[in-house]
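S.,

Sequence below, as promised.
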Amino acid sequence: VIEIVMATEMSKHSNLIESITFNYALDNPKDNKSSFNMKKYLNDNKDAQKSKIQEQFMSFVVHSCDISHSSKKFNLHKKWSELLFNEFFNQGDLEKKLKLDISFLCDRDTSNLPKSTVDFNRSFVIPSFEIIYKLIPKSKNYLDNIKINTEEWKKMLPVEDRPLEINNKNENSEIMSNEMSGNEENEENEENEDDQ
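The prediction came back faster than expected:
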Protein backbone atom coordinates (compact mmCIF):
# COMPACT_ATOMS: atom_id res chain seq x y z
CA VAL A 1 0.00 0.00 0.00
CA ILE A 2 2.87 2.39 0.82
CA GLU A 3 4.38 1.92 -2.66
CA ILE A 4 1.01 2.57 -4.30
CA VAL A 5 0.53 5.80 -2.34
CA MET A 6 4.11 6.89 -3.09
CA ALA A 7 3.36 6.43 -6.80
CA THR A 8 1.12 9.51 -6.66
CA GLU A 9 4.30 11.64 -6.45
CA MET A 10 4.43 13.54 -9.76
CA SER A 11 8.18 13.02 -10.17
CA LYS A 12 7.39 9.32 -10.73
CA HIS A 13 4.82 9.97 -13.47
CA SER A 14 7.03 9.43 -16.53
CA ASN A 15 8.57 6.19 -15.23
CA LEU A 16 5.14 4.86 -14.30
CA ILE A 17 3.71 5.62 -17.75
CA GLU A 18 6.71 4.12 -19.53
CA SER A 19 6.63 1.00 -17.37
CA ILE A 20 2.93 0.35 -18.03
CA THR A 21 3.03 1.09 -21.77
CA PHE A 22 6.25 -0.79 -22.48
CA ASN A 23 5.73 -3.85 -20.27
CA TYR A 24 2.18 -4.44 -21.44
CA ALA A 25 2.41 -3.19 -25.07
CA LEU A 26 -0.05 -0.37 -24.47
CA ASP A 27 1.87 1.93 -26.80
CA ASN A 28 0.28 0.11 -29.75
CA PRO A 29 -2.69 2.40 -30.54
CA LYS A 30 -6.09 0.79 -31.07
CA ASP A 31 -8.91 3.24 -31.53
CA ASN A 32 -11.88 1.55 -29.90
CA LYS A 33 -10.50 -1.51 -28.17
CA SER A 34 -8.42 -2.26 -25.13
CA SER A 35 -5.04 -3.63 -26.17
CA PHE A 36 -4.49 -5.35 -22.84
CA ASN A 37 -6.27 -8.20 -21.11
CA MET A 38 -4.93 -9.11 -17.67
CA LYS A 39 -6.21 -12.69 -17.70
CA LYS A 40 -4.71 -13.35 -21.14
CA TYR A 41 -1.43 -11.71 -20.11
CA LEU A 42 -1.10 -13.94 -17.02
CA ASN A 43 -1.99 -17.06 -19.05
CA ASP A 44 0.63 -16.16 -21.66
CA ASN A 45 3.28 -15.31 -19.03
CA LYS A 46 3.20 -18.09 -16.49
CA ASP A 47 6.41 -16.88 -14.82
CA ALA A 48 5.10 -13.36 -14.29
CA GLN A 49 5.00 -12.15 -10.69
CA LYS A 50 1.31 -11.59 -10.19
CA SER A 51 1.73 -9.41 -7.10
CA LYS A 52 4.23 -7.15 -8.90
CA ILE A 53 1.88 -6.73 -11.87
CA GLN A 54 -1.02 -5.93 -9.54
CA GLU A 55 1.10 -3.36 -7.73
CA GLN A 56 2.09 -1.68 -11.00
CA PHE A 57 -1.48 -1.41 -12.20
CA MET A 58 -2.85 -0.32 -8.84
CA SER A 59 -0.10 2.32 -8.62
CA PHE A 60 -0.99 3.59 -12.06
CA VAL A 61 -4.74 3.68 -11.39
CA VAL A 62 -4.35 5.43 -8.01
CA HIS A 63 -1.92 7.92 -9.57
CA SER A 64 -4.43 8.60 -12.37
CA CYS A 65 -7.22 9.08 -9.84
CA ASP A 66 -5.03 11.55 -7.97
CA ILE A 67 -4.84 13.81 -11.04
CA SER A 68 -8.36 13.08 -12.30
CA HIS A 69 -10.40 16.13 -11.32
CA SER A 70 -10.20 17.37 -14.93
CA SER A 71 -12.33 14.36 -15.88
CA LYS A 72 -15.29 15.92 -14.04
CA LYS A 73 -17.76 18.40 -15.53
CA PHE A 74 -16.06 21.73 -16.16
CA ASN A 75 -17.63 23.73 -13.31
CA LEU A 76 -16.48 21.14 -10.75
CA HIS A 77 -13.06 20.75 -12.37
CA LYS A 78 -12.59 24.54 -12.41
CA LYS A 79 -13.45 24.75 -8.71
CA TRP A 80 -10.89 22.04 -7.88
CA SER A 81 -8.26 23.83 -9.98
CA GLU A 82 -8.90 27.12 -8.18
CA LEU A 83 -8.67 25.45 -4.76
CA LEU A 84 -5.44 23.73 -5.77
CA PHE A 85 -3.87 26.97 -6.95
CA ASN A 86 -4.96 28.75 -3.78
CA GLU A 87 -2.99 26.11 -1.90
CA PHE A 88 0.01 26.64 -4.21
CA PHE A 89 -0.16 30.42 -3.76
CA ASN A 90 -0.39 30.17 0.02
CA GLN A 91 2.75 28.05 -0.06
CA GLY A 92 4.45 30.57 -2.34
CA ASP A 93 3.47 33.46 -0.04
CA LEU A 94 5.03 31.65 2.90
CA GLU A 95 8.19 30.88 0.91
CA LYS A 96 8.47 34.59 -0.01
CA LYS A 97 8.01 35.57 3.61
CA LEU A 98 10.78 33.16 4.64
CA LYS A 99 12.99 34.42 1.77
CA LEU A 100 13.08 30.96 0.17
CA ASP A 101 13.01 30.17 -3.54
CA ILE A 102 9.39 30.03 -4.67
CA SER A 103 8.33 26.54 -5.75
CA PHE A 104 7.09 25.73 -9.24
CA LEU A 105 3.58 27.20 -9.89
CA CYS A 106 3.46 28.77 -6.42
CA ASP A 107 4.13 32.41 -7.31
CA ARG A 108 0.77 34.18 -7.53
CA ASP A 109 2.41 37.04 -9.45
CA THR A 110 3.66 34.91 -12.34
CA SER A 111 1.60 31.69 -12.43
CA ASN A 112 -1.30 31.50 -14.84
CA LEU A 113 -4.12 29.11 -13.92
CA PRO A 114 -5.56 28.51 -17.42
CA LYS A 115 -2.15 28.05 -19.07
CA SER A 116 -0.81 25.83 -16.28
CA THR A 117 -3.95 23.69 -16.37
CA VAL A 118 -3.83 23.29 -20.16
CA ASP A 119 -0.16 22.29 -19.96
CA PHE A 120 -0.76 19.89 -17.07
CA ASN A 121 -3.74 18.22 -18.75
CA ARG A 122 -1.91 17.82 -22.05
CA SER A 123 1.32 16.59 -20.50
CA PHE A 124 0.04 14.35 -17.71
CA VAL A 125 -3.69 13.80 -17.51
CA ILE A 126 -4.59 13.08 -21.14
CA PRO A 127 -1.74 10.56 -21.67
CA SER A 128 -2.70 8.80 -18.41
CA PHE A 129 -6.36 8.55 -19.33
CA GLU A 130 -5.57 7.39 -22.85
CA ILE A 131 -3.98 4.38 -21.16
CA ILE A 132 -6.91 4.01 -18.75
CA TYR A 133 -9.18 3.97 -21.80
CA LYS A 134 -7.15 1.15 -23.37
CA LEU A 135 -7.47 -0.83 -20.15
CA ILE A 136 -11.11 0.08 -19.47
CA PRO A 137 -12.92 1.11 -22.69
CA LYS A 138 -16.01 2.13 -20.70
CA SER A 139 -13.95 4.99 -19.24
CA LYS A 140 -14.01 6.92 -22.54
CA ASN A 141 -16.37 9.59 -21.17
CA TYR A 142 -13.69 10.60 -18.64
CA LEU A 143 -11.09 11.02 -21.38
CA ASP A 144 -13.61 13.00 -23.43
CA ASN A 145 -14.32 15.30 -20.47
CA ILE A 146 -10.61 15.98 -19.97
CA LYS A 147 -10.24 16.98 -23.62
CA ILE A 148 -13.37 19.16 -23.49
CA ASN A 149 -12.19 20.86 -20.29
CA THR A 150 -8.75 21.49 -21.75
CA GLU A 151 -10.39 23.25 -24.69
CA GLU A 152 -12.44 25.36 -22.24
CA TRP A 153 -9.24 26.49 -20.50
CA LYS A 154 -7.64 27.28 -23.86
CA LYS A 155 -10.50 29.70 -24.60
CA MET A 156 -9.46 31.69 -21.53
CA LEU A 157 -5.98 32.28 -22.95
CA PRO A 158 -5.00 35.07 -25.33
CA VAL A 159 -4.56 33.64 -28.83
CA GLU A 160 -0.77 34.12 -28.70
CA ASP A 161 -0.57 32.04 -25.51
CA ARG A 162 -2.56 29.08 -26.80
CA PRO A 163 -0.28 26.03 -27.04
CA LEU A 164 0.81 24.43 -30.27
CA GLU A 165 0.30 20.70 -30.54
CA ILE A 166 3.21 18.82 -28.99
CA ASN A 167 4.47 15.85 -30.97
CA ASN A 168 6.31 14.16 -28.13
CA LYS A 169 4.01 14.05 -25.10
CA ASN A 170 6.42 11.91 -23.07
CA GLU A 171 9.24 14.41 -23.56
CA ASN A 172 7.02 17.28 -22.48
CA SER A 173 5.74 15.44 -19.39
CA GLU A 174 9.34 14.53 -18.48
CA ILE A 175 10.27 18.22 -18.51
CA MET A 176 7.32 19.14 -16.30
CA SER A 177 7.99 16.20 -13.97
CA ASN A 178 11.53 17.43 -13.45
CA GLU A 179 10.34 20.96 -12.77
CA MET A 180 7.73 19.77 -10.27
CA SER A 181 10.19 17.56 -8.42
CA GLY A 182 12.86 20.25 -8.30
CA ASN A 183 15.33 18.38 -10.55
CA GLU A 184 15.60 21.34 -12.91
CA GLU A 185 15.74 25.04 -12.07
CA ASN A 186 12.40 26.66 -12.70
CA GLU A 187 11.73 30.07 -14.16
CA GLU A 188 11.09 31.63 -10.77
CA ASN A 189 14.56 30.63 -9.54
CA GLU A 190 16.15 32.06 -12.68
CA GLU A 191 14.29 35.34 -12.18
CA ASN A 192 15.42 35.47 -8.54
CA GLU A 193 19.04 35.00 -9.64
CA ASP A 194 18.70 37.79 -12.21
CA ASP A 195 17.39 40.14 -9.53
CA GLN A 196 20.43 39.58 -7.27
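The first helix runs from residue 2 to 6.

Coffee later?
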